[in-house]
Amino acid sequence: MQGQISGSRSVRRGVPATKRLRAFRGARDGLAGEAHGGRSIDRHLVEAQVDGAGGGPRHGRRADLPRQPDVIVCGSDWIAQGLIIEAQAAGIRVPDQLAVTGFGNLRMAGDMRPTITSVDIDGGRIAREMMRVLRARAAGEEIERRIDVGFRIIARESA
Questions:
Q1: By three-state DSSP, how is residue 9 classified?
Q2: Domain containing 34: what range?
């Protein structure tokens, strides 16, 4: 079973978080029933809240589930870090019992133990594209509505 943690309710209502959740669900549904590594993919999705004060997810809800997720996709590296810390405190071995991924490829993702598998986006490229679009708009030029800046998966120890 897979889980997804994307932040507090107010953050999840944001357009990027909503689009990521929709894409996550679509990808998961596309894999449902397929065998991967001898295991079939479930269609179940567990969403969790994040405690805004401490930054960590309320991991305790995982223990109350009838089936335990074996993969949790987090909306940020900070959330992944909090989840890993709470999982380890509960005696859950990451990644042996629970695989965790983050988003953002923050420096701490490589410093954490286990290191966090993360989605890396090129912030410099995003800034350059923004400046190019702003200059084009200021010059009265036609601008693209959508610019794909891509991403990379940084595979580390947590998944």
A1: helix
A2: 2-154
